[in-house]
Amino acid sequence: MKTAVTLCRVAEAAAGPFVFHDSLSEGFAKAAQHGFDAVELFLPSADEVSIGEIKQLQAQHQLAIAAVGTGAGMVKHGLSLTDADPAIRAKALEFILSLVDFGGQLGAPAILGSMQGRSSIAVPHARAISHLAESLCIIAARAATFGVPFIYEPLNRYETNLFNRIGDAAAFLIGEKLENVTLLADLFHMNIEEASLEQALAENVEHIGHIHFADSNRRAMGFGHTDSKPLLLLLHQLGYSGYLSAEILPLPSADEAAAQFIQSTTL
Ligand code: LER
Ligand code: MN
Question: Would the CB of 113 count as within 6 Å of ligand 1?
């Protein structure tokens, strides 16, 4: 398993679960210094930084790009794939495709988290799910042109009412015959929604392409009440070979969170 750390450049997400918020050059340097294999980028848009600049930072610090988040479309522009307004849904799709193209040029998949939105009186559940399936089909096909998957993240009930559990999301992918979409298992969300973390991971491992390895309180593992060692052993036994990514709060400080994360992912 490989490790990644989140670098956030979105001002509206300054209080979010991201470790480093400084310039990308500082963030890459910190990631390398702590011994991460990769960075996960959370950017305001696809034109925030050129592909050349990212490649130069990668070469300088020997870091891969694990994934690219798309949540800025929601926190900055209020866009979602399940909005009642077709014009907003279209803008949401464009925004995500631009980040798929950005990540794709770096060999990295993009993630759909908060931009999935939620169902409402204006957009009943079945319609929201059908908007989601339609968009995933288009986005996953674009990702495939770069030879990368697209990552869909079930979130806890306070952030979406579409899919909260990994098994339900996996059944949805199968039912809709969605190809080239993998699931993101965020252990913080799973701590709220799953009856058993182990069971949810074991039953759905073939669909899981990325992991946000966070403790129950969204701090680094070891700073909350999740027993992480059995989870690490299980993932190892299951043959999970993707990233364990530090989408965690930078507490008590970014450096201490990063150091604890690295320690907690060492078997
Ligand atoms: C995104 O990865 C996530 O986990 C959401 O909770 C964003 O706030
Ligand atoms: Mn997450």
Answer: yes
